[in-house]
Amino acid sequence: MRTLTHFLKEHLPSATAYTGRLRIHPLKGDGSDRRVYRLLAGDQTYICVSHPNGRRGIPSENDSFFYIAWHLRTKGLPTPLIYAFDPRRGLFLMQDFGDFCLESVIKKIKEPRLVRRVYETILKLLLKIQIEGSRDFDSRYCYDTQLYNGRFSWERESRYFIEAFLKGYLGWKTVPPSVEKELKDLALAVDREKEQLFLYRDFQSRNIMIWSGGIGLIDFQAGRLGLPQYDLASLLIDPYVNIPEKIQEELIDYYLQECSSRLPVNAQTFREHYEIIAFQRNLQILGAYAFLSRVKGKTYFEQYIPPALLSLKRRVSGKLFRPYRNVRLLIENL
Fold first, then answer.
1. Rounded to a whole number, what is the distance in angstroms from the first to the last CA of the chain?
2. pTM for the complete prediction?
3. Which of 29, 44, 88, 199 could form a disulfide with 226 if both were Cys (CB 3.0 to 4.6 A apart)?
4. Which residues pair with 91 in a beta bridge?
5. What is the pLDDT of residues 52-80, one digit of tens each?
6. Residue 59 has what DSSP assignment?
7. Which are the contacts of 304, defined by CB distance < 8 A and separation ≥ 6?
């Protein structure tokens, strides 16, 4: 706390012109090891993030967050204004978007028509993030690979599912080679999609804030170039919200309609690629919840495993997955 206090005394007055009494309140964390604080400075509030583990590497995770926040903001996108960044200590002073995320807002809405309208607004924003974010984007600032592709999907999503979920969570000793081969084939199949746009990587309801000024974006430090279907899937199959399948389908149609006026897109091909990429995102979700529950001791994430697993089972029931018999049978029997 002494390091944090010193940082604030050093930067808060020059960044915000506030010199009065400061109150610091820790905020509840989620899946990250970042520590987040709300600062009450008179009638204004700010967010301070302490992430010393994010200093590792060149570029570091903190470097990526700082660059992507600046880059997207220059494109007119609602990332938080960063008042101060201390790379040596891993500290940020930034704009406060409040306490309400998309998840909390959607769970208060009972009318499906209104849920769809909210998501249509988010999808318009997503397209702007993808298209504008890819322009002049310097991928050298990406700390966690510069590109999402089939190799990354296999190594960091399929294998994550195998190690963290099947073995770590369910207690499996081994996975049949036939299953591993089909999982690898599915992962490499994401390379069939050739469109490369800005990819947020974790575009889900807890990273989209709703505040008095509109929408705010957080947790985008894993951004890179990648496939447009990935962030769409991250939003629509998000277990925190669990959007009904019918609305998911309607929202994919809406996204394609909006996309077609800005990019050349074949709806059928896009949907075929979406199924594979959404499958990979689903594997990543299950791996993450298993890891956070078992390894990090954050057992409250376990409640989201059943809806994520149900989503995966529904997906492999489609005709696109018929050639992958071993994977399909494994998932159907989980």
1. 45
2. 0.95
3. 199
4. 50, 86
5. 999 999 999 999 999 999 999 999 999 99
6. T
7. 239, 240, 285, 289
Q: All domains of the chain, ordered by start, with CATH?
A: 2-95 (3.30.200.20), 102-332 (3.90.1200.10)
Please report, as a single letter, which amino acid is at residue 132: E
Instruction: Enter the tokens of residue 152.
Output: 């990354």
Q: Measured between alpha carbons, how far is 106 from 101 in angstroms, rounded to an integer?
A: 9
Q: Identify each DSSP E strand in 62-200 by its residue range.
A: 82-86, 91-95, 197-199
Helix (H, G, I), strand (E, B) or coil at 217: strand
Backbone angles phi, psi at 93, to 5 degrees: -120, 120
Instruction: Give the pLDDT band (50/70/90) at residue 276.
Output: very high
CA 275 to centroid of chain Cα atoms: 18
- Token pair 């599915």 is at which residue? 186
Contact 37, 47 (CB under 8 A): yes
Residue 31 · residue 292 · CB < 8 Å? yes
